[in-house]
Amino acid sequence: MAEDLINSFMTGPDENGRFGDFGGRFVSETLMPLILELEKQYEFAKTDDSFWAEMNDLWTHYVGRPSPLYLADRLTEHLGGAKIYMKRDELNHTGAHKINNVLGQIILARRMGKTRIIAETGAGQHGVATATVCAKFGLKCVVYMGAHDVERQKPNVFRMRLLGAEVVPVTSGRGTLKDAMNDALRDWVTNVRDTFYCIGTVAGPHPYPAMVRDFQQIIGKEAKAQMLEREGRLPDTIIAAIGGGSNAMGLFFPFLDDKSVNIIGVEAGGKGVNAKMEHCASLTGGRPGVLHGNRTYLLQDDDGQILEGYSISAGLDYPGIGPEHSWLHEIGRAKYVSITDKEALSAFQLCCEQEGIIPALEPSHALAHVIKIAPDLPKDHIICMNMCGRGDKDIFTVAKHLGFDMAEAD
Ligand SMILES: *Cc1c(COP(=O)(O)O)cnc(C)c1O
Asked: Structure pTM?
């Protein structure tokens, strides 16, 4: 197995932004100078103590880090097998892990003298996190959002507007996340001087996948230290849900060289990975291609047209996956599985009932896989799953699927 030939899994990407055959920098000539400048500035900031001091201060006092590592004891007992821990990133300000990364990029933007921040958003979570941090620093914020998503995600559109952001509905293509990302890239090229493009996941051209991973790594670093303190050893299995793959990469990265740790990424299986592409499982149901400036596994038809994908969870329906995951999949260091809408919904309910935690639908996918494997594992097997978001945003979707009429429920 290729895995055995590699000394460290933590050295990537190479100087061309490649993780094995994946990643890279597939961008137009006009975009290249911007990307190179960003890379230079990031490489500098990364080794600058004052950059991390500013991050740590905001992580502590604005975001609320470190997030707790919680032993889900009732769920553990209910399932009767492995011991289940949750990394509580849903307790962060704005309710998910996204703000970890947004803070990093915006501090970098400020150092680069940029005054206008643009972002793409699908379900609106990254848009809200970006609008939040822009408000905090008094920066102009423009969020590109597919017209279709603007309709579907009204509460988040309103949140962004309250926070002072301009939300631009994107009607090109099919008016979804993929198209919003294309429009944001176009905006960047036309507004080079004052604008910084804040990407929401471990995708895009190099250095974005590595940079976003570096900012999200705080999740895995904390989890590792907290686990050593609680249990005196590392977990046996770590599990996270994957849209583009940023919360998962953040949890996984610090554990990549700990070979005793099983790493499992959970993709959205929608209505089932075999059914007419009604899913978002890029690794389990897609194949390699180029999208948004990098080579990775994508959902595509026989002609290479990108497919939209489907999931009950709007935050998971990105048709690609971060290139580092594609590499970890190919070399076998991490395993990727999929979970259907139905399985995620019952995990959501079980988590509410057993733990008093209303999870977002995205981590409900990770939890569903935990529920699948935990009963057959010994009681001394330790699982750590990433509870990357809270479920307040999802109660309307869940109510609809459970046949509960919100309008009549007063
Ligand atoms: C955005 C989002 C995701 C998907 O993004 P990743 O980059 O895969 O982490 C998952 N969970 C929550 C709660 C989100 O808001």
From this structure: 0.97
